[in-house]
Design a protein that fits this description.
CATH topology of the largest domain: Calcium-transporting ATPase, transmembrane domain
Number of strands: 28
Oligomer: single chain
Membrane topology: Multi-pass membrane protein
CATH class of the largest domain: Mainly Alpha
GO molecular function, one term: P-type sodium:potassium-exchanging transporter activity
Number of helices: 34
Pfam family, one: E1-E2_ATPase
Helix content: 40-55%
Strand content: 15-25%
Largest sheet: 11 strands, mixed
Structural class: alpha+beta
Number of domains: 4
Radius of gyration: 36 Å
Shape: elongated
Subcellular location: Cell membrane
Protein name: Calcium-translocating P-type ATPase, PMCA-type
Length: 931
């Protein structure tokens, strides 16, 4: 072989990304070898291999690093609310208010610790991203076959492929014998693909149609061959997908965006409020430093310190519940995202289907025989018109199964009631069907041993095996494409004997084939021929006796259709994205109900080829009207997700293959399958379904909706309580009263009294209607106008009763000295208890607290009891009396406190009863935020 300038030219050719790398499949073998300057017999020399590796680098993939402990910890402080509290803490330290500062600082640290431990645990529970390249490869170099580390492969190497091996790099098939490669992880095609050395003369052929190419990370299931390496490392198709993952980046979840909006609003309100109060007090003659301390206290009162901690705990608890369901979430905010999902984009193979080919029907002449059982489970029966058949008494059916078993190279590894297929899964399906009829391959081969064969090829589209026949001539058994086998048949088997195959009979066979194919079956034809003594090879090509057709399919998961229907009732559209042929994909979509959207409008099936030339607007339009995408590439999947997002959808993407990874990362929430999913898919996803059960996603969606409703419950609760705190202080200052609450009392209310009921609200159980309403508007802010109004009037209600108790206390005990301390204790206790009881108001803005659901949340009752005990301790424990400046209360005091504290519950109940409260759903038309 010649090296030198030409070799460098070849290397430069390979270094060019994009279109040139995609055209290897269009070139004849000799031209590919000439371009790469390699010898098809002896391969590269060792010296040339070293030079090429120096130019191209190792045949390895550059993987993105997982989230480090430091980055996870830093992310806990990204919230603007946390930042605002941190600033307030720093100012408090500067002014010498160390107790207040330390108290807030403790809350911030606890929030960060909880969030960090939860997310770090999830990150550690996922397997680290593994290299896609196999550890070793058999290669021909310098005329010698040897095994080398796969990382040392270079363009121009000749790699030997055999059944059971993984393809170690992208390359052009230069020799093959029955070579079958499973490409589901890359293309989504559920069946192994038969390879050929003939070029594919379509420049833009999808990966699944490039029968003369094999790609890194795919697996050889049958046969053998030789591969001329055309691309290594990041220039492989898997490497290009890795680059797409980096390009996709990640998006903030809807909850993160809404909390950020809320943080911005809070900062503006608090800064303006504090500035007004400090300036007003100073202008009225108060000491500026004292007013600044009051301003800091009001800032602390205005910001719900418990919000970050309760939000983190809510998401963490939801994350744990999802983990028990089989859904492992890697980032806390992603837990809530599922609740706002409007579209689920899902792969077909292994997600909606079992990824186990199954014989479901046989067409034997005019007879249609159905086969029960799904996947590789060995139980099942054969039925004709609903009547169970005795296979051994049915000569035609027994012969069809016999042909399918003997004309196969696959074997079954049986364990209990199911089997694992070793070899081609299509042949495995034939073997499983035979086992259902108690016909084992070993027994049949002992009875009729194989003595010859003609392997399947893409040219002949059939496989032939020759077997000894007990007491008779040798028999050829044939399986292959229906049209090919029917054309080669001169006889037609029936239970009455062999009849001539007439043109009309051949047309009936092809019509039956079309009917089965239209039902998404993969169809094989079966035939046999009694061979003469001393038969020749040409005797195997014609004169066959046609036995029948076998229809097989990768069956739908039993729970998939019900799960999709549940999504439909919840207003969620499911879109299937697959590498399958358009007709197959369309039929499966029809069976799953993907041909209509949740509103009943028709959706169509689109082929990847028709999408290739679309601009961004064309993609957005197409994505809005399609229920099934067929024959799509990884770039298509990514653009589909982006187009849906551009249309305002919140997109969840499910998948298990390398080809799904870029879209998984781009989606609002990517969901990878844990059992059959590749490591690349898991690394790109925000959530991993550990049981590969599509129905688990629906449960996770429901949990996401529950979590969002609970977040709004405690936002409603915390903000109305904090509004009451700040209005009590602000109103007293404006009317010239002494301040009713001190800074430590405000902190006690924010971080002790408020937090426990809020956490209990975060544990509200699911509402039965959670999955019967459409998704909320993803563009709707967390704080809608009606929600703000709800918080506002209820916060003022709590303020009014607190000021009433304070006013009465000052009338009873005076406004100075120990009398003011007594009045302040009344205000403190009233505000604390009214907030505790207000938790029952916050459970629902539509339904009365005194319904059958009153006792469904035991955590809330425990929180109420705990807070009452803490408040009693605050006024009767000497230590807390000195810290919080409280005094013991009399019976009359308790009567005043309880009357004022319970009054708002009655008022809110009357409002609910009169239907005067207008829920946000009435404004938006979407689901109520607090059902």
């Amino acid at each position: 072989m010649t090296n030198g300038p030409h070799a460098e030219l070849a290397s430069d050719h390979l270094a060019t990304a994009g279109e040139q790398e995609r055209h290897w499949h269009t070139l004849p073998v000799e031209e590919v070898a000439g371009t790469l300057k390699t010898n098809l017999s002896s391969g590269l020399s060792n010296a040339e291999a070293v030079r090429r590796r120096a130019r191209h680098g190792a045949n390895t993939l550059t993987h993105s690093k997982g989230r480090s402990a430091l980055s996870i910890l830093a992310s806990q402080f990204n919230s603007l609310i946390v930042g605002l509290l941190a600033v307030a803490t720093g100012v408090a330290f500067a002014l010498g208010d160390n107790i207040e500062a330390v108290a807030v600082l403790v809350v911030l640290v606890l929030n960060a610790v909880v969030g960090f431990l939860t997310e770090w645990s999830a990150e550690q529970s996922l397997t680290a991203l593994q290299r896609q390249a196999v550890p070793t490869a058999r290669v021909t170099r310098g005329g010698m076959d040897r095994e080398i580390p796969a990382a040392e492969l270079v363009p121009g190497d000749i790699v030997l492929l055999a059944a059971g091996s993984r393809v170690p790099a992208d390359g052009r098939v230069v020799e093959c014998v029955r070579l079958q490669v499973a490409e589901a992880a890359l293309t989504g095609e559920s069946l192994p693909v038969g390879k050929s050395v003939e070029p594919v003369l379509d420049d833009v052929a999808p990966l699944g149609d490039r029968l003369d190419m094999a790609y890194l990370g795919t697996a050889v299931t049958d046969g053998r061959g030789r591969l001329l390496v055309t691309a290594t490392g990041m220039r492989t198709e898997v490497g290009r997908i890795g680059a797409l993952i980096d390009e996709a980046g990640g998006r903030d979840t809807p909850l993160e965006r809404k909390l950020a909006q809320l943080g911005h609003a809070l900062i503006g309100v608090v800064l303006v409020l504090c500035a007004v109060i400090v300036l007003a007090g100073w202008l009225r003659g108060n000491d500026f430093v004292s007013m600044l301390k009051i301003g800091i206290s009001l800032a602390i009162a205005a910001v719900p310190e418990g919000l970050p901690a309760v939000a983190t705990m809510t998401l963490a608890l939801g994350m744990q519940r999802m983990a028990r369901m089989g859904a492992l979430v890697r980032r806390l905010p992603a837990v809530e995202t599922l609740g706002s999902t409007t579209v689920i984009c899902t792969d077909k193979t292994g997600t909606l289907t079992r990824d186990e080919m199954t014989v479901c029907a046989l067409q034997l002449g005019d007879r249609r025989i159905d086969v029960s059982g799904a996947g590789f489970a060995l139980a099942g029966e054969f039925r004709e018109n609903g009547r169970a058949l005795d296979v051994h008494a049915d000569q035609h059916l027994a012969l069809a199964l016999r042909v399918g078993v003997l004309c196969s190279d696959a074997t079954l590894d049986r364990a209990g009631g199911s089997a694992a297929v070793l070899g081609d899964p299509t042949e495995g399906a034939l073997l499983v069907a035979a086992v259902k009829a108690r016909m084992g391959k070993d027994d049949l081969e002992r009875e009729s041993p194989r003595v010859g064969e003609v392997p399947f090829s893409s040219e002949s589209k059939r496989m032939v095996t020759v077997h000894c026949s007990p007491g008779g001539p040798a028999v050829a058994y044939v399986k292959g494409g229906p049209s090919v086998v029917a054309e080669a048949s001169t006889g037609l088997f029936t239970c009455e004997g062999v009849r001539p195959m007439t043109p009309e009979g051949r047309e009936r066979v092809l019509a039956a084939n079309e009917k089965l194919a239209g039902q998404a079956f993969r169809v094989l034809a079966l035939a046999f021929k009694d061979l003469p003594a001393g038969y020749r090879d040409e005797d195997l090509t014609g004169g066959l006796v046609f036995v029948g057709l076998v229809g097989m399919i990768d069956p739908l998961r039993e729970e998939a259709k019900a799960a999709i229907e549940r999504c439909r009732r919840a207003g969620i559209r499911t879109v299937m994205i697959t590498g399958d042929q358009e007709a197959t994909a369309a039929e499966i979509g029809r069976q799953l109900g993907l041909d209509r959207d949740p509103q009943g409008r028709p959706l169509r099936t689109a082929h990847g080829r028709e999408l290739a030339g679309l601009d961004d607007e064309g993609w957005r339009t197409a994505a809005a009207g399609v229920g099934v995408f067929a024959r799509v590439s990884p770039e298509h999947k990514l653009r589909i997700v982006k187009a849906l997002q551009a249309g305002g959808e919140v997109v969840a993407m499910t998948g298990d293959g390398v080809n799904d990874a870029p879209a998984l990362k781009q989606a609002d929430i990517g969901i990878a399958m844990g059992v059959k999913g590749t490591d690349v898919a898991k690394e790109a996803a925000a959530m991993v379904i550990t049981d590969d059960n599509f129905a688990t996603i629906v449960g996770a969606v429901e949990q996401g909706r529950v979590i969002y409703s609970n977040i709004l419950r405690f936002v409603h609760y915390l903000f109305s309580c904090n509004l009451a705190e700040i209005l009590v202080v602000f109103a007293s200052l404006m009317v010239g009263w002494p301040l009713p609450l001190g800074a430590l009392q405000i902190l006690w209310l924010n971080m002790v009294t408020d937090v426990f009921p809020a956490m209990a609200l975060a544990l509200e159980p699911s509402n039965p209607d959670a999955m019967k309403r459409p998704p909320r508007n993803p563009r709707e802010p967390l704080m809608t106008a009606s929600f703000i109004g709800l918080i506002g009037w209820q916060g003022m209600l709590l303020t009014g009763v607190t000021l009433l108790a304070y006013f009465v206390g000052m009338r009873w005990y005076g406004a100075e000295g120990s009398g003011h301390r007594h009045a302040s204790t009344l205000a403190f206790m009233t505000l604390a208890l009214v907030q505790v009881f207000h938790a029952f108001n916050a459970r629902s803005q539509r339904h009365s607290a005194f319904t059958a659901r009153l006792f469904t949340n035991g955590w809330l009752w425990a929180a109420v009891a705990g807070c009452l005990l803490l408040q009693v301790a605050a006024v009767y424990t000497p230590f807390l009396q000195s810290v919080l400046h409280t005094v013991p209360l009399t019976a009359a005091d308790w009567g005043l406190v309880m009357t004022c504290s319970l009054a708002p519950v009655g008022v809110v109940e009357l409002v609910k009863f009169g239907r005067l409260a207008s829920p946000p759903a009435a404004v938006t038309g979407r689901d109520p935020i607090i059902p």
